[in-house]
């Protein structure tokens, strides 16, 4: 009996403590949910968002300005010039020639004057992906200039490609425009790099050049830009 009376006060104290703690946490949780943001906290958030959006718009403006500079109004673009030169260089590097084969030729002809050249080159080239697409391994390719319709002093750089190597390597096939607004297309040929010549014909020389210098001048906006590259034929000829 004595122990039961002694435990009753402890029981009431424990019950009171549990009820107090429970009601306190409920009130504090409700208060926290209804509290929201203070003016200082809201100002900090707005300032951070302002810094983030300023960085985003400044980056966008810079990239847009660079894009406009590399692709100005009128003329062609630097990216298109790089693509055209790489197309020419890689094709010339794939030159295929066998001495004595009538249909396999390499003919380069010059026309025009310095900085206003209208050169032309015709060759048989190896097709690196011929087996994958089911086409002939050797093709005829010609690079030359053709006047633009609305600009008589400017030219389209044409790539003519014929999948069949036939008796007339200078005609047939399909023409593709590689680049527009070209003012000069020049090719020079050499065997060792010490002497360069403007014309080349395997019917007379009986071999292909080992070095080919490519020079291309085109309008980028209102400015003439000159680009050069070097091709190294010699892998696919005997």
Describe the protein in words.
- The protein folds into two domains: 69 residues; 160 residues, no CATH class.
- It has five helices and twelve strands.
- An eight-stranded antiparallel β-sheet has the order 9-2-5-6-7-8-10-11.
- Strand 3 and strand 4 form a beta hairpin.
- It is elongated.
Task: State the main characteristics.
238 residues, alpha+beta, 2 domains, eight-stranded antiparallel β-sheet, two-stranded parallel sheet, 5 helices, disordered N terminus
Can you describe this structure in just a few lines?
The chain is α+β, with helices and mostly antiparallel strands and 238 residues long. The protein has helices at residues 2-35, 39-70, 78-93, 130-133, 202-205, and strands at residues 96-97, 106-109, 112-113, 116-117, 120-126, 138-147, 155-162, 174-190, 200-201, 211-220, 223-231, 236-237.
